[in-house]
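pinging the channel bc i need a second pair of eyes. not urgent but kinda urgent?? the chain im working w is below, pasted from the shared doc
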Amino acid sequence: MFNIPFIDMTATGQNINRLRTAAGLSVRQMQTVFGFTTPQAIYKWIHGDAMPTIDNLVILAAILDVTLDDIVVVRENDARKCG
């Protein structure tokens, strides 16, 4: 039996926001980097309402100068045991 890991979207969003601030980037600057017409996607990431796609996570890690593991928070939930 093993625990199934899951992504903690709220904690991941907090990481994105903290790392963005530490890098001195505004949401608008990130919007420009990603080529989004509005900043809504980035706000959804920050608030934990959505996750960046894997290709956007790779870009995010590059512009924030961190690894994917520094961005994504993975947890294990005992209620999701398999086996």
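so The mean pLDDT is 92. and The two ends are 4 Å apart (CA to CA). — does that match what u expected or am i reading it wrong
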